[in-house]
UniProtKB/TrEMBL annotation:
Keywords: 2Fe-2S, Iron, Iron-sulfur, Metal-binding. This is Rieske (2Fe-2S) protein. Gene3D superfamilies: Rieske [2Fe-2S] iron-sulphur domain. It holds the Pfam family Rieske. The keyword Repeat does not apply. It comes from Paenibacillus violae.
Length: 98
């Protein structure tokens, strides 16, 4: 399991928010008070990059949209964005990448 520092919790004031890790784009989401999750920006349909627009996750290629709290696709419910656990330790957020 590879752990990657996302950043200090204090730097994030609104969710979902775009974060870049190892040159890849992800979306950080707050699930509960001290619970966070990270979503891949790779669209499960055709691999295009999902955008965060006005708090909504949408793929511009064919218009699929994704539920921000689960990553589930609205258009095809069996599809979802890949997600990763996030842990909060010493005020820092770390992504647990497979
Ligand atoms: S590649 Fe994302 S909706 Fe088709």
């Amino acid at each position: 399991m590879k752990e990657i520092l996302i950043g200090s919790i204090d730097q994030f004031t609104a969710f979902p928010v775009e974060v870049e890790l190892d040159r890849d784009l992800y979306f950080l989401m707050q699930v509960d008070d001290d619970q966070y999750t990270l979503y891949s920006s790779v669209c499960p349909h055709g691999g295009y990059t999902v955008d965060l627009i006005d708090g909504e996750l949408e793929c511009p290629l064919h218009g699929w949209t994704f539920e921000v709290h689960t990553g589930r696709c609205h258009n095809v419910p069996s599809a979802r964005l890949a997600s990763y656990n996030v842990i909060l330790r010493d005020n820092q957020l770390f992504a647990q990448m497979a």
